[in-house]
Amino acid sequence: MLDFVALDFEFGLHMNDRISIVEIGMQKVVGGKLVDNWQTLVNPESKLDGYASDNIHHIYASDVLFAPTFATIWPQIIAFVGDLPLVVHGVKNEQHAIITNCHFYDLPLQAFKYIDTLTLAKKLLPDLPKYNVNYLADYFKLPMTADHAALDDAQLTAQVLVAMQTKYGTDVISKIIK
């Protein structure tokens, strides 16, 4: 089994210069077991998108007002992940958010190795009608958690990758992600 950290962000607003992150959830997996997790709200130091707050993740400006900024928690993220690959479902947004926030706060970029469960699912299960993480969780008969809560989504993504490894084998997964 691959060891990894599953990551999920909840976003406040997509801006020209960066994507504002309002919540981060990470789930560490070692030997196929969920062993440790980390979650925090994030003060994006920008206006929040009312639609996302009201209808998607239910994180409001008052929730993040006194939360740490991305610049403050970046060292904690790096320490939690260590040398493990980051697993994300639909890596584009999270990767872009990391890059733009590091540039915005003048922080050093980390050379994370990314594994995208969305890409894996499309290659391993080409006939599925949908590929969102909740659909995959249902396909693999995993227990569902809250939707659009960063830690819950990270844990579900982690469980999806563990299920893929169990069904298809780590060697098959490793060949696809190289």
TrEMBL record:
<dbReference type="GO" id="GO:0008408">
    <property type="term" value="F:3'-5' exonuclease activity"/>
</dbReference>
<dbReference type="GO" id="GO:0003676">
    <property type="term" value="F:nucleic acid binding"/>
</dbReference>
<dbReference type="InterPro" id="IPR036397">
    <property type="entry name" value="RNaseH_sf"/>
</dbReference>
<dbReference type="GO" id="GO:0005829">
    <property type="term" value="C:cytosol"/>
</dbReference>
<dbReference type="InterPro" id="IPR012337">
    <property type="entry name" value="RNaseH-like_sf"/>
</dbReference>
<protein>
    <recommendedName>
        <fullName>Exonuclease domain-containing protein</fullName>
    </recommendedName>
</protein>
<feature type="domain" description="Exonuclease">
    <location>
        <begin position="3"/>
        <end position="170"/>
    </location>
</feature>
<dbReference type="InterPro" id="IPR013520">
    <property type="entry name" value="Ribonucl_H"/>
</dbReference>
<dbReference type="Pfam" id="PF00929">
    <property type="entry name" value="RNase_T"/>
</dbReference>
